[in-house]
Amino acid sequence: MLRTFFSRLKTPNSDPKKTGHSREAVIQASEAKPVRLDERIKIGIARVLAEAWSAVPNDMPAAARFQAAKSAAAQSITRLSPSIKRQVGAHFQTQKWEPLRMADPLKDDL
Protein backbone atom coordinates (compact mmCIF):
# COMPACT_ATOMS: atom_id res chain seq x y z
CA MET A 1 0.00 0.00 0.00
CA LEU A 2 2.74 2.46 0.86
CA ARG A 3 4.67 1.45 -2.23
CA THR A 4 1.74 2.46 -4.47
CA PHE A 5 1.32 5.71 -2.57
CA PHE A 6 4.96 6.71 -2.89
CA SER A 7 5.19 5.58 -6.50
CA ARG A 8 2.48 8.13 -7.39
CA LEU A 9 4.43 11.03 -5.87
CA LYS A 10 6.33 13.13 -8.36
CA THR A 11 9.94 13.75 -7.57
CA PRO A 12 11.83 16.80 -8.86
CA ASN A 13 14.22 14.58 -10.82
CA SER A 14 11.54 12.46 -12.44
CA ASP A 15 11.33 12.05 -16.16
CA PRO A 16 9.34 14.89 -17.87
CA LYS A 17 7.67 12.32 -20.14
CA LYS A 18 6.20 10.59 -17.10
CA THR A 19 5.05 13.78 -15.35
CA GLY A 20 3.59 15.46 -18.41
CA HIS A 21 5.69 18.61 -17.94
CA SER A 22 8.15 19.77 -20.52
CA ARG A 23 11.70 20.41 -19.40
CA GLU A 24 11.40 24.07 -20.44
CA ALA A 25 8.34 24.57 -18.25
CA VAL A 26 10.10 23.02 -15.27
CA ILE A 27 13.13 25.29 -15.81
CA GLN A 28 10.94 28.41 -16.17
CA ALA A 29 9.03 27.58 -13.01
CA SER A 30 12.23 27.07 -11.04
CA GLU A 31 13.69 30.37 -12.28
CA ALA A 32 10.53 32.39 -11.52
CA LYS A 33 11.33 35.50 -9.52
CA PRO A 34 9.38 35.65 -6.24
CA VAL A 35 7.57 38.89 -5.47
CA ARG A 36 9.15 40.63 -2.50
CA LEU A 37 7.06 41.60 0.51
CA ASP A 38 7.36 45.37 -0.02
CA GLU A 39 6.18 44.98 -3.62
CA ARG A 40 3.20 42.95 -2.41
CA ILE A 41 2.35 45.69 0.08
CA LYS A 42 2.45 48.35 -2.67
CA ILE A 43 0.22 46.19 -4.85
CA GLY A 44 -2.17 45.75 -1.91
CA ILE A 45 -2.32 49.51 -1.32
CA ALA A 46 -3.08 50.14 -4.99
CA ARG A 47 -5.77 47.45 -4.92
CA VAL A 48 -7.43 48.95 -1.84
CA LEU A 49 -7.45 52.42 -3.42
CA ALA A 50 -8.96 51.14 -6.65
CA GLU A 51 -11.62 49.03 -4.96
CA ALA A 52 -12.56 51.76 -2.48
CA TRP A 53 -13.22 54.46 -5.06
CA SER A 54 -14.91 52.11 -7.52
CA ALA A 55 -17.47 51.22 -4.83
CA VAL A 56 -18.52 54.86 -4.33
CA PRO A 57 -21.15 56.52 -6.56
CA ASN A 58 -20.07 59.73 -8.30
CA ASP A 59 -23.18 61.73 -7.41
CA MET A 60 -22.54 61.82 -3.64
CA PRO A 61 -21.29 64.94 -1.81
CA ALA A 62 -17.51 65.06 -1.25
CA ALA A 63 -17.62 64.39 2.51
CA ALA A 64 -20.02 61.50 2.10
CA ARG A 65 -17.93 60.12 -0.77
CA PHE A 66 -14.84 60.06 1.41
CA GLN A 67 -16.64 58.32 4.29
CA ALA A 68 -18.07 55.72 1.91
CA ALA A 69 -14.65 55.18 0.33
CA LYS A 70 -13.06 54.85 3.77
CA SER A 71 -15.60 52.19 4.71
CA ALA A 72 -15.07 50.35 1.42
CA ALA A 73 -11.28 50.54 1.92
CA ALA A 74 -11.58 49.06 5.41
CA GLN A 75 -13.61 46.17 3.99
CA SER A 76 -11.12 45.69 1.18
CA ILE A 77 -8.23 45.56 3.65
CA THR A 78 -9.92 42.69 5.49
CA ARG A 79 -9.95 40.67 2.25
CA LEU A 80 -6.19 41.00 1.69
CA SER A 81 -3.67 38.27 2.30
CA PRO A 82 -2.83 37.84 5.99
CA SER A 83 0.84 38.44 5.23
CA ILE A 84 0.21 42.05 4.08
CA LYS A 85 -3.09 42.95 5.72
CA ARG A 86 -1.54 44.54 8.81
CA GLN A 87 0.99 46.64 6.87
CA VAL A 88 -1.58 47.92 4.37
CA GLY A 89 -4.01 48.84 7.15
CA ALA A 90 -1.24 50.62 9.05
CA HIS A 91 -0.29 52.56 5.92
CA PHE A 92 -3.72 54.15 5.74
CA GLN A 93 -4.28 54.59 9.46
CA THR A 94 -0.92 56.18 10.28
CA GLN A 95 -1.37 58.72 7.49
CA LYS A 96 -4.94 59.44 8.64
CA TRP A 97 -6.38 58.10 5.35
CA GLU A 98 -4.73 60.91 3.35
CA PRO A 99 -3.62 58.54 0.52
CA LEU A 100 -7.27 57.58 0.09
CA ARG A 101 -8.35 61.23 0.01
CA MET A 102 -5.65 62.07 -2.56
CA ALA A 103 -6.69 59.17 -4.81
CA ASP A 104 -10.24 60.50 -5.23
CA PRO A 105 -10.89 60.49 -9.00
CA LEU A 106 -13.27 63.49 -8.65
CA LYS A 107 -11.02 65.67 -6.46
CA ASP A 108 -10.06 67.80 -9.47
CA ASP A 109 -13.73 68.42 -10.26
CA LEU A 110 -14.38 70.09 -6.90
Explain what this protein looks like in three dimensions.
65% of the residues lie in helices and 0% in strands. It is mostly helical and 110 residues long. The longest helix is centred in the middle third of the chain and has 18 residues, at 37-54. The radius of gyration is 23 Å and the shape is elongated. The model has no long low-confidence stretch (mean pLDDT 83). It has helices at residues 2-8, 16-19, 23-30, 37-54, 62-78, 82-94, 98-102.
Helix and strand sequence: HHHHHHH
What structural class do you assign from the helix and strand content? Answer: mainly alpha
Question: What is the first-to-last residue Cα distance?
Answer: 72 Å
Structural Rg:
23 Å
Uncertain runs? none
How would you state the average pLDDT, rounded?
Answer: 83
- Summed up, the helix count is 7
Shape: elongated
- Largest β-sheet summary: none
Number of strands: 0
Strand content: under 5%
